[in-house]
Design goal:
This protein has seven helices and 14 strands. The protein is α+β, with helices and mostly antiparallel strands. The strands form two sheets. Strands 7-6-5-4-3-14-13-12-11-10-9 form an eleven-stranded antiparallel sheet. Strand 4 and strand 5 form a beta hairpin.
């Protein structure tokens, strides 16, 4: 009911917008029809847990809100602000609690093209400095934990450039814009090999097999549900993870992993989004499963309009 009310409300606001649903051939096109100073607010939930055999452990949950503002609109681009606030962390892991709140009250400014396709982070230096400031505070608060300063320096490398920030720090933004700019058919699935971000090495993205399909077209509500499955190349993922953990071990002066004993990793991500004809996301759910033969690690991110 909540989704229906929100969708109908946006439909009223967007009655003069061009239609994006073409029932004559069962296709949809996801385009951002946004005005300067237009705003929406969303709740974002992250949940992660491990499954080993029939046991579930290490469950962590965080929630926060995002205010999205279209700060500029031109013939060929949008400039958009995401403001992060009101964090709630539910975890027994004290380190995770502190790290998760580093981006509290941070604004990320980025640019899309005229269709709403993500292009680049505009204020990446400010984002870097904001995160570095939080990590310095975190370093002070955890100075009694052995080798934590070395671990923090390793984390800083993930945010030391525009490329690394776009790979590691804007996952929700990329999720929000996953389907913008595309034209999709209810009758034809899309299969392709694409490149996806590698948060451990921004210069070497992963080869990824993609399958995309339209689950539902609802012309009355002017919205559609689009789904996508992405499977990362297992060999590339395993090698990158091994190299990263080896580097961490060298930094912390702890035993490094042994390649002959290192398990093959699998990474499959499912994305489901209901998107209004105006280009605003009603909700988007991303479920990622990283697994070996014995372990399964699940991360789920949900973005929902308020």
């Amino acid at each position: 009911m909540k989704h229906l009310i929100v969708t109908l409300f946006i439909s009223i606001l967007a009655t003069n917008l061009p239609a994006q649903i073409y029932m004559s051939d069962s296709t949809i096109q996801v385009i951002g029809y946004w005005d300067k100073n237009e705003k929406q607010s969303y709740s974002v939930t992250h949940e992660s847990y491990r499954v080993k055999g029939s046991d579930t452990s290490s469950r962590d949950l965080s929630k926060y809100k995002v205010n999205i503002t279209i700060t500029d609109s031109t013939a060929d681009s949008y400039t958009i602000d995401w403001f992060y606030h009101d964090y709630e962390i539910y975890s027994d892991n004290e380190v995770l609690q502190k790290i998760s709140t580093i981006v509290q009250d941070m604004t990320i400014t980025f640019i899309t093209n005229e269709l709403g396709v993500f292009q680049e982070v505009k204020n990446w230096k400010e984002v870097r400095d904001f995160i570095y400031k939080g990590l310095r505070m975190f370093k002070t608060e955890t100075k009694e934990i052995p080798n934590m300063d070395k671990y923090i320096r390793q984390m800083e490398k993930m945010y030391d450039s525009k490329e690394s920030i776009e790979a590691a720090a804007i996952k929700e933004i990329r999720l929000f814009h996953s389907f913008h700019g595309g034209k999709y058919s209810f009758n034809n699935n899309i299969s392709a090999t694409i490149k996806t971000a590698n948060m451990y090495n921004s210069k070497e993205p992963f080869d990824t097999e993609l399958i995309l399909w339209v689950e539902e077209i609802d012309p009355e509500d002017n919205s559609s549900i689009i789904c996508m499955e992405q499977t990362v190349n297992s060999e590339q993922l395993t090698k990158t993870s091994f190299d990263y953990l080896t580097e961490i071990a060298a930094t912390l002066k702890t035993p490094a992993p042994v390649w002959s004993e290192f398990p093959a990793l699998k990474n499959v991500t499912w994305t489901t989004s209901r998107i209004h004809g105006s280009g605003w996301v009603i909700y988007s759910i991303e479920t990622k499963e990283v697994s070996t033969e014995e372990d399964l690690y699940i991360q789920e991110c949900t973005i929902e309009i308020l």
